[in-house]
Amino acid sequence: MILIKIKNQYELFSRVNIFSAGEFDNSTQAIADPAWYVQLRLWHRPVPITLFPEPSIALFAEQANILKLDQPYRPRVMQLRQLSDSPTSSDSSTSLQIQYYLPKDVPSILGSGKNPEILKQLKPSQMKFLPGCTLEVINHNHGQDNEYFQGILPPDAVCGFTYQSQYYQVELGFEVNAQEFLSYDKGIDPQTGKGTWGALLGQYKFMKSRSFSSELML
After folding, report:
1. Of the spans 50-54, 56-60, 79-83, 97-101, which averages the highest pLDDT?
2. Given a cut of 80, is residue 36 above it in pLDDT?
3. How far is 44 from 212, CA to CA, in rounded Å?
4. pTM for this predicted structure
5. Cα(80)–Cα(2) distance, rounded to whole angstroms?
6. Residue 87: pLDDT band with limits 50, 70, 90
7. Contacts of 9 (CB under 8 A, 6+ apart)
8. Residues in Cβ contact with 66 at an 8 Å cutoff, skipping those fewer than 6 apart
9. How many other C-beta atoms can be found within 10 angstroms of the C-beta atom of residue 105?
10. Is residue 201 within 8 Å of 33, Cβ to Cβ?
11. How far is CA 180 from CA 15, 23, 25, 99, 209, in A?
């Protein structure tokens, strides 16, 4: 889950969705430093149906090696919603939350980044809740065209889940603005606590090549 505590919740809720929805690649970074950064294509595709009972936006995410675009991996669904600390109080503060889910039938959903029609088959019962995936998100606004959101994993938080009888642990983090998405995600060895894949030497710098904001159900 991702929590944001900021003033104009709906306006920022809309902007973080608009910033995040799109197709991205890190070709500039990968060409400059191929020893450490694989050239990837990243999709954040709005889910075109209502998956959850409460008002929210769902984004489907997956990525692929630029040489194997027909073999995407790391599929996940991010539910973006607004919560109130005290729904019955007029002076309660509101937070924005993003909850991560894993599709239970991974093979059936792969490729949805390029083919969003597949996402119409999704149902809430097919979503597996991923516990411990909580990021605190800070809105940095330094004026027009100079705004971004930063997602930070709280101390001692553990994002872990079991898939095909194997336990996986992931350390999450990101920065996103209107033009780019910086991913700090990396796999963690549960036994040693050391990184095994992903942003081991620094963030993956994905530049937006295509926006999917028009597909958002805002």
Report:
1. 56-60
2. yes
3. 8
4. 0.89
5. 8
6. very low
7. 82, 94, 95, 96
8. 25, 27, 30, 39, 40, 41
9. 11
10. no
11. 13, 10, 9, 21, 9
pLDDT in tens, 103-158: 999 999 999 999 999 999 999 999 998 888 877 777 888 877 789 988 878 788 89
Pairing mode of beta strands 2-5, 135-141: parallel
